[in-house]
Amino acid sequence: MSAKIAALMVCLATSGVTLGQVVVPPGPPPAETPKVEPPPLPQRPPTPPPPIPADLDYDPITPHDANGNPTELTTPQDYVALGHNVWFDARMLAKSASVLQARRIELEQLIVANLESVERLTTPAFQNLRVDRDDPAAGEMLQAVQQALAPFASLRPVQIELLDAGAIPSRVRDLHQKITNEYQSEVQKHIMDNAEGDKISAIVPFMMRTATAEILYFYDKLAVAVAEHATDTAWLREIALSDAEAARVREKLAAYESANADAQAMAAREVIGAMGLDARKRAMQKAMLDRPAPSATKIPGENVSFRPLATEERTEAVFGVVDGNAFQWEAFVTNAEGG
Question: pLDDT class for 339, splitting at 50, 70, 90?
Answer without folding.
Answer: low
